[in-house]
Amino acid sequence: WRQAATGLGGVLAVALVWWGVTAFLGSRSDAAAQAMAQALETYGAPVGAAAPPEATVKFATDAERLAASEKAFQAVKSRYWLTPQARVATLFLARIAADRGDQAQAIKLLGEITSRRSGDPVVRLAMLDLIRLRLAKGEGMQLVPELEGMASGKDPRLPRDAALFQLARVWEREGKPEEASKLYRKLVEEFPDSPYRSEAQQHLASGS
User: Fold this and answer.
1) Is 161:191 a contact under the CB 8 Å cutoff?
2) Residue 118 phi, psi (nearest 5)
3) Distance CA 37, CA 85 (A)
4) pTM of the predicted structure, to 2 decimals
């Protein structure tokens, strides 16, 4: 009886801990969602003369809007770090850094998100932003191994068609149009429903 009671007590203890953690995370998620909604409203608020009189959130300058947005997203990231909203906040913090011309900070923040090797939509958006910034820095060749992994399906951080398209862009920038054409052709033939297919066809038609 004592052994049975001890075993039952252990099960109940685990169940109570699980319930407590779930309830805690659920409440944090709800609060994080509200905080994120407010941060997004700030980020998308009208500026200057473009702001309608009835707008509840508006700013005199774009610099003021970015400063307020940064503060709001930073609060989400630091207070609700166990929630998906924290990753979204980090993505927007990276975009704000890029808007200000701080490419190094933007790349650092995007790297925090993309270090998580998953097919999470936020991870994929961050990866596309990271590729764009690193290409602008001339780091295309450093991206090739990662993009090849994503194009083969071994790395889920981008869909295969998106990775093929980005890899083709790298080869174009590196002055290798034949390699780029092979990838564009592969995309067109193997991914007929891809949103990148039309642009890939345009590249093939122009001979780039």
Assistant:
1) yes
2) -150, 170
3) 10
4) 0.80
